[in-house]
UniProtKB/TrEMBL annotation:
It is found in: Cell membrane. Signal peptide: none annotated. This is Major facilitator superfamily (MFS) profile domain-containing protein. It is a multi-pass membrane protein. The chain crosses the membrane at residues 21-41, 47-74, 81-99, 105-124, 136-157, 163-180, 210-233, 245-265, 277-295, 301-321, 333-355, 367-385. PROSITE patterns: MFS. Residues 16-391 form the Major facilitator superfamily (MFS) profile domain. Keywords: Membrane, Transmembrane, Transmembrane helix, Transport. It comes from Butyricicoccus porcorum. One of its GO terms (molecular function) is transmembrane transporter activity. PANTHER family: BYPASS OF STOP CODON PROTEIN 6.
Length: 392
């Protein structure tokens, strides 16, 4: 198995990895809860599909801006200060959404959730990659904790019923616990390349083919996952296939599949090469997404959604695991892995909302076929690139 295992790390490093797992759990909880609560938020505040799409785009813009800036900010302050400070912003955003339906405040609140997401992804993936030597198994395990939070989100929404504000309040409480746990972490210079102070920023990774292949994979995957994450409950309800309570259960089933898939990916990545796994996962995503779009009854839509979750599950961690240690060589690389995909994801979310206002949510979701095509092409090129390396 490539890289360092969790049991081989020091107690301090394990505590830091565990804190990242908690942060990813919280991120899965608040991101999916927003999507689960979106039909109720739309009804309470009277917002349109377009505003809903702009809210999702605002989140992606926050994610993108953080990817560009957070490493440079950390070089001037400290990784721990920025990690904790940005990490609490999502819960500030949830609090804002609880008190007002003003579109500008809602957009700002979603921007804060995106900043928090970007910070967690940037520092977390960078720290795990650096301390584990780009261990794809550990990266996929970290992603599994996101799926645990994502599975919990629709259940929290169901328990709270029509009171989505109560569900948000519970999530804010989880955020406070996460923040208090994070106060005890110790991040040393050798843990994260963001702590390096060389006086210059090296963008040499832009000249590598593997960076652009990984960026294309991550961009298309994040756009598909983010759109499904944000619109799935609305899609089931507005398509007339399921009531909101049933749609929440289906969302839980999807994220249960993602959870199983991420644990499976963590295990499979110790036995198969990243490019083989990416090829299979990309084909599976294309088939299952097509099944989801072509189905008009509950059973095939459910099967397709679960299949989509299984095949999407390990995409992010496996792509990073096949990036040839770029994050260890270049401090800004993880930021660009966030920023560039963030552009595609932001445009996708906005496009879906705009199209849905004109021809319905099913038509809006069909826009994702563009991203599925990009995913398949990127996966094919990624496979060829690594296959040539293997032959040499």
């Amino acid at each position: 198995m490539k890289g360092k295992r969790l049991k081989d790390m020091s107690k301090r490093q394990r505590y830091l990895i565990y804190d990242f797992f908690i942060a990813y759990f919280a991120m899965g909880l608040y991101l999916i809860l927003i999507g689960s609560a979106l039909p109720s938020i739309k009804a309470d505040y009277g917002i349109s599909y377009r505003i809903g799409g702009l809210m999702m785009s605002a989140q992606q813009i926050g994610y993108l801006v953080t990817g560009v800036c957070v490493s440079m900010i950390a070089q001037r302050l400290s990784v721990k200060a920025v990690y904790l400070g940005f990490g609490i912003l999502a819960f500030v955003g949830l609090a804002l959404m609880m008190v007002t339906g003003n579109p500008f405040v809602l957009l700002f609140a979603m921007l804060l959730t995106g900043i928090c997401k970007g910070s967690t992804c940037n520092f977390g993936n960078q720290l795990v990659s650096t301390m584990s030597g780009s261990n794809a198994s550990l990266l996929n395990l970290a992603q599994a904790f996101f799926a645990v939070g994502a599975c919990a989100a629709p259940l929290v929404a169901m328990v709270c019923g029509t009171s989505w504000r109560l569900a948000f309040a519970i999530t804010i409480a989880v955020g406070i616990v996460m923040f208090l746990h994070g106060m005890r972490v110790e991040i040393r210079p050798e843990d994260s390349v963001s702590n390096e102070d060389s006086g210059t920023v090296d963008f040499g990774f832009f000249r590598t083919k593997i960076f652009w292949l990984c960026a294309a994979l991550i961009m298309s995957y994040l756009a598909i996952e983010g759109s499904v994450m944000g619109w799935l409950v609305t899609y089931f309800v507005d398509s007339g296939v399921a009531k909101e309570s049933t749609a929440q259960l289906l969302a839980t089933a999807l994220w249960g599949a993602l959870l199983v898939g991420r644990f499976a990916s963590a295990w499979l990545s110790t036995r198969f090469r990243p490019h083989h796994m990416i090829a299979v996962m990309s084909l599976g995503v294309a088939v299952c997404f097509t099944g989801l779009m072509m189905s008009h009854t509950l059973v095939p839509m459910t099967v397709s959604a679960i299949g989509l979750g299984l095949f999407m599950a390990g995409m992010y961690g496996t792509a990073l695991g096949g990036s040839e240690n770029l994050m260890e060589k270049y401090p800004m690389c993880m930021g660009m892995f966030i920023a560039i995909p963030g552009i595609g994801a932001a445009l996708t979310q906005s496009a879906i909302g705009t199209i849905a206002d004109h021809i319905g949510i099913r038509g809006g979701m069909c826009f994702l076929y563009v991203l599925v095509a990009v995913l398949l092409v990127a996966a094919a090129l990624f496979f060829v690139y690594h296959q040539k390396k293997t032959v040499k």
